[in-house]
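Lecture 7 notes: from sequence to structure.
We start with the chain below.
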Amino acid sequence: MTLPNNPSFPLQLIQKTIEQGAVYLTSDTSFSFAGITPHLPLSTSQQLALNLCLSNTPLMVIQGVPSSGKTRLAQVLVRGLIEQQKRILILTHHPETKSAYQTLPVVPFPLSSSQNYDTWLREQLQQQYLGKLPMDFLPVHLLPDSLLKQLRSPQKLEKWLHILQDKHPTGGEINFLLSAEFLQASEARLNLLAYRLQKLVPLLQQQLWLHQQPAQLSQEAAIAITEQIRQQASIPILGTVSEFLQPQYQELRQTFDCIVVEEAEYLSWEQLFMIAGVAQKLILLGNFPLNLSFPNRTNYSQSPPLAWLGEFLLPTYRYQLTEQFRLHSTIAKPVFESLYNQRIRTQPQSDILTLPQLTARLQWQDVRGTPVEKENPWEGKRVLKLMSALGATRSTQMGILAFTDAQRDWLCNHCPPEFSNVSIGSFADWIGKERRMLLVSCVGEPENLTEANLAIALTRASDYLILFGDYQLWSDRVSPMQDLLRQSELQREREVSLL
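Predicted structure tokens for the same chain:
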């Protein structure tokens, strides 16, 4: 590997580990961040991982199975670094994963935006910050008024101030106009609101004026303020790895105080080197290797980067989350044993769904004699039949995952309207989602099923996981599913009809 001049510390650490084996870089206090008080509850293991991320290490690899809390950990870390005014880049592999960062205290710049960074920052300045001044305050002697609050948006203020100032209507006339705005309000309630509006005209005028000022900001002033914010403030940047590495974002590839990469198991070595090269501190979060054979240190390019780093970095730079918080214990044991070589602990759940009509939490519904096709209506009907038996009141708790897009589309087209809240999708549609119950339609060629897709299918349900398919077919054909089929906890059922 050829490094650029003055390579970053994360890049130096990766290079020295490749060339020399596990090494330790001299501590540098610039890698350390202040402590963070989590805004979300963390387990003891997650808190330890957070402390390691804040320590004076230029690189930290956090591995964990699905539902072990990697995204929660990243959310706490990112929010804390925003409060410390750090320059942060948040990257994911799947676009759907970015939704976990839409509620940050500072609106992140989305790399998927069609605008360049300066234009977006200028619009955010005018719309999100200057354009959202508090306008709901009242004199201290007045009690809050829910109807009055509804009239205090900028558009409503312009309308009602025009009525109050230009026409000078009587209280009865205002009452009449308000009755069209609030159809359910009583006459006495409207009289009180009309009285308050007349008394508060000066205050409402001032609030409208405050709102209008940002819109009157000159272009030159907006550009000047934008440049100051860009140089001094820390607006987080959010996107996928592929988006960040596109040529149009070349100007954003300056040194970041911290780069957080979720789903880092999908990184290539080239992507890792490019990202590490612009990071003062690099945090990689990703899944355990799926029964990966032991990697070779010198032939690093033959192994996924995250798995290789998790094996050969010093323990100072890596940590494993070995507990999961989503799957019921009776599902977690056979599922995780079939996917991973590691032993996974299951944290007890306080709220567990129990359905008497289902005899087991992990089931295989055997649908014999089905052809190996991308769409199977017979199997789809079995899925919808069980869904109907569980009842429409459970629709928000249920989901359906199909192994093929064709089967997904068939299920969507034939799903009864009363089950419109049921989430139906294929593997990519279920990234970052979970439901209490998941019905899985195992349609297609077993040889085409990847370990990564199987891991998605088996870890999206918390309380019930029901799989549908030809048991004999999936047992005979080589696929990652075979380890699960051999688990004794998997209950096999077959529908029997008397003709």
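Points to note: The chain has a mean pLDDT of 86. The longest strand covers residues 461-469.
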